[in-house]
Amino acid sequence: MKNTFSLVVVIIFFVMLSSVANKVKANSCQDPLGSCLQCDERCKAKHGPTGQASCDSRNQLCTCYYTCGPPSPTPPHHKQCYGGTGLCSSACNQNCAQKYLGGSGFCESIGISRLCKCQYPC
Fold it and tell me: What are phi and psi of 46, to 5 degrees?
């Protein structure tokens, strides 16, 4: 009787574990981001802090893995807002990702200054 109970507990445990694993796989998406330059920062800027970047060293291509829901019939249209983080540096994109949810950064010359500008959904 004790062995039967133990077997039932083990079976229930594996059923629960496999259902959790299926839920995780069902909500995992990937997004090819091109070059490996600032791969992790661009991934997190585009898909939030849970985005996991991977750079294929052979082809030098960045892929972002992130949690997503079921595809919607029509993609939502988000208005884009702009901000900045001051003078441009190699961390411009990362700074924008940290300052603005879903933000990404780029450098722009204004007169003799190079400024870091951020674009983010609002």
Answer: -85, -35
d(CA 46, CA 4): 50
Q: At what angle do helices 39-47 and 92-99 cross, to 10 degrees?
A: 20
Q: Kind and range of the H or E element at 118?
A: strand 113-121
What DSSP state is assigned to residue 78?
A: -
- Residue 92: its H or E element: helix 92-99
Question: Per-10-residue mean pLDDT for the chain, 122 residues long?
Answer: 47 44 57 86 83 87 83 64 90 90 87 90 86
Cβ proximity of 106 and 93 under 8 Å: yes
Going along the chain, which residue ranges are E strands? Answer: 28-35, 52-56, 61-67, 80-87, 104-110, 113-121
Q: Which of 57, 68, 71, 60 is nearest to 24 (CA)?
A: 68
Residue 62 to residue 34: CA distance in whole angstroms: 5
CA dist., res. 119 & res. 99, Å (int): 11
Return the number of other C-beta atoms located less than 10 Å from residue 82's C-beta.
11
